[in-house]
Amino acid sequence: MCVRGRALMLREHTQSESSLVWIPSATGVCQSDAKGDDFPSCTAFTGCTAFTSCTACTMTRQCKHGIFKEFLAEFLGTFVLVLFGCGAVAQTVLSRNTLGENLTIHIGFATGLTMGVYVSGGVSGGHLNPAVSLAMVLLGKLKFYKFPVYVLAQFLGAFAGAAAVFGLYYDAFMDFTSGILSVTGINATAHIFASYPGRHLSIINGIIDQVVGTGMLVLCILAITDGKNIGAPHGVEPLSVGLALLAISVSMGLNCGYPINPARDLGPRVFTFVAGWGMEVFSTANYWWWIPVAGPMGGGVAGALIYFLFVKMHHSHAEKPHEELEEEEEEEDEEEDDNSLKDKDQLFSQTVNERPFESDFDGVFSKNYDLYDNLADKC
């Protein structure tokens, strides 16, 4: 806890009047200025043992605001997603399918999403997708003022991930394209970073594709994280989300390659514009670029609404998660078994009590013994 009195008492331990005082405690450290005035917030940190400012404490001070930590987590998680996903596409395309195929790309994006959620999930929830963040806002799971921060982090993370892939395979890009970065044609490489529609795809069908695909992704995420549904075991949620994306990729990738993520598509697309592919990345295919941005946002809303109407709103406040209900049912079954055993014991005891006493059998046994003796004498 932040205690101003402790800051005043420990001020004499500082080396200069301008240095910061860090007060370790069981729950964290409190920052105080040289005058002993506490800063408005405390940050949990247990690695600082000195009462003077240190590097670790400085880093803690920089990250003392929760929204900034969430920004960094979303940035890094989306970076991981795009690095693995677009990296898989680059390896497949630049090797001319000798070191990869469509399944390679699907697995790359699915595992990239899984690892990205593992990286960021404990801090920000691991949205990595503006459509998911919007769904969480509508369901009251994310405060509205955080939404633009999340979207900005996701966009920048995707941009950085695309830049990392380009830097990683720069020589391969130059060899594949002979130094000419093109959007269309036999040596096109822009589709490594962003989605482009198939020749058969119309604008309307493209919008439907993005709404359905993103809606299914959001619906599955809500089911996986719903504590009153079956859900997923703790720590397995990212893997389950990755499997949901894998299912979408192998079933809905024909039209335009399942972008279903505005940040994942727009961030790398902007990078290609900056890196040398030119304005054609926005103008090609009748200005296709806005569909993978607007479509997923509508799909996220639709997925959240469908899950709420069909599942979530039917949870009672007193209802418990599925696993707890199963445990209660097992306990009830055990109690019933115990009661049945008790009933059997009582019935057995009553039967025994109703039987004649040994004294009642004495006369019968003695008569039988006399009969046997008489038969023996005759023989």
Automatic annotation (TrEMBL):
<feature type="region of interest" description="Disordered">
    <location>
        <begin position="319"/>
        <end position="345"/>
    </location>
</feature>
<feature type="transmembrane region" description="Helical">
    <location>
        <begin position="239"/>
        <end position="258"/>
    </location>
</feature>
<comment type="similarity">
    <text>Belongs to the MIP/aquaporin (TC 1.A.8) family.</text>
</comment>
<feature type="transmembrane region" description="Helical">
    <location>
        <begin position="149"/>
        <end position="170"/>
    </location>
</feature>
<dbReference type="GO" id="GO:0015250">
    <property type="term" value="F:water channel activity"/>
</dbReference>
<dbReference type="GO" id="GO:0015254">
    <property type="term" value="F:glycerol channel activity"/>
</dbReference>
<dbReference type="InterPro" id="IPR050363">
    <property type="entry name" value="MIP/Aquaporin"/>
</dbReference>
<keyword id="KW-1133">Transmembrane helix</keyword>
<keyword id="KW-0472">Membrane</keyword>
<keyword id="KW-0813">Transport</keyword>
<dbReference type="GO" id="GO:0015204">
    <property type="term" value="F:urea transmembrane transporter activity"/>
</dbReference>
<dbReference type="Pfam" id="PF00230">
    <property type="entry name" value="MIP"/>
</dbReference>
<protein>
    <submittedName>
        <fullName>Aquaporin-9-like</fullName>
    </submittedName>
</protein>
<feature type="transmembrane region" description="Helical">
    <location>
        <begin position="105"/>
        <end position="128"/>
    </location>
</feature>
<keyword id="KW-0812">Transmembrane</keyword>
<dbReference type="InterPro" id="IPR022357">
    <property type="entry name" value="MIP_CS"/>
</dbReference>
<feature type="transmembrane region" description="Helical">
    <location>
        <begin position="203"/>
        <end position="224"/>
    </location>
</feature>
<feature type="transmembrane region" description="Helical">
    <location>
        <begin position="294"/>
        <end position="311"/>
    </location>
</feature>
<dbReference type="GO" id="GO:0016323">
    <property type="term" value="C:basolateral plasma membrane"/>
</dbReference>
<feature type="transmembrane region" description="Helical">
    <location>
        <begin position="71"/>
        <end position="93"/>
    </location>
</feature>
<dbReference type="InterPro" id="IPR000425">
    <property type="entry name" value="MIP"/>
</dbReference>
<feature type="compositionally biased region" description="Acidic residues">
    <location>
        <begin position="324"/>
        <end position="338"/>
    </location>
</feature>
